[in-house]
TrEMBL record:
Annotated transmembrane regions: 27-47, 59-81, 111-132, 139-157, 163-182, 203-225
The organism's place on the tree of life at top rank: Bacteria
Domain Phosphatidic acid phosphatase type 2/haloperoxidase, first and last residues per copy: 63-178
Taxonomic source organism: Prevotella scopos JCM 17725
Keyword Repeat: no
UniProt protein name: Undecaprenyl-diphosphatase
Keywords, in A-Z order: Membrane, Transmembrane, Transmembrane helix
Length: 231
């Protein structure tokens, strides 16, 4: 498969995902793609970390590791990859003018390859899935990161290949920082496995996990409610 075939496939998938001529879906996706929508999710993740770690040393380790991951993702992407590849966003690509739909005049600055929204979402979701080790939590976190990722080609600001690479890069950095977290954590704690009906095997309370799942569900309900009000 040569490069022209891949580009044609990328373009075809973009036009498949882009827009829907549905006002409800337009406003729903606009809310999902907004970082402000997910502030309660980030706050609930922080709450879980504080509640389930017995001292500030361990709490700051988790916070510091996640911050390091975000720094790596955005430093590599915004500082190196995007300026080097310099791929125009679909909405700004002259070859796609009149083909890519805009959604309520939404646009994004900078270059297209690869998607920072996607990479950041997968970094957070994969790291916390590894940290918590609960199937239901994993399902909801991965669903969230996929929904955020798919919002980008829908809005015409990223190609599917931008999203795919963002998924791979964000997940890879998440795995890398998780193993770094483990190496540091083991130095001052040997309590890595819990046997309890109240906690996951890494020591995170199922009750606190339920809080995060509720926040995610309510955030999607909020996005749907805003979309209904915008019709």
């Amino acid at each position: 498969m040569n490069l022209d075939v891949l580009r044609a496939l990328d373009k075809s998938l973009l036009l498949t995902f882009n827009g829907s001529n549905n006002v409800f879906m337009d406003y729903f996706v606009l809310t999902v793609t907004s970082a402000y929508t997910w502030i309660p999710l980030y706050a609930s993740l922080l709450y879980m970390v504080i509640k389930n770690n017995e001292n500030w040393q361990k709490i700051m380790l988790v916070i510091g590791i996640v911050a390091l991951g975000l720094l790596i993702v955005n430093g590599v992407n915004i500082g190196i990859v995007k300026p080097l590849i310099a791929r125009p966003r679909p909405l700004n690509n002259a070859d796609l003018q009149g083909m890519v739909m805009t959604v309520n005049y939404y646009n994004a600055s900078g270059y297209s390859f690869f998607s920072s929204h996607t990479a950041n979402a997968f970094l957070v979701s994969v790291f916390f899935c590894l940290l918590v080790r609960d199937r239901i939590f994993t399902f909801f976190m991965i669903t969230w990161s996929v929904m955020v990722s798919l919002s980008r080609p829908y809005l015409g600001v990223h190609y599917p290949s931008d999203v795919l690479v963002g998924m791979i890069f964000g997940s890879s950095v998440a795995i890398l920082i998780y193993f770094l977290y483990l190496r540091i954590y083991i130095r001052f704690s040997d309590k890595l496995h819990y046997i309890s009906t109240r906690y996951t095997r890494t020591g995170y309370s199922f009750a606190d996990i339920d809080v995060i799942i509720c926040v995610l569900i309510l955030s999607f309900i909020y996005a749907a409610f805003r979309a209904v009000l915008s019709i």
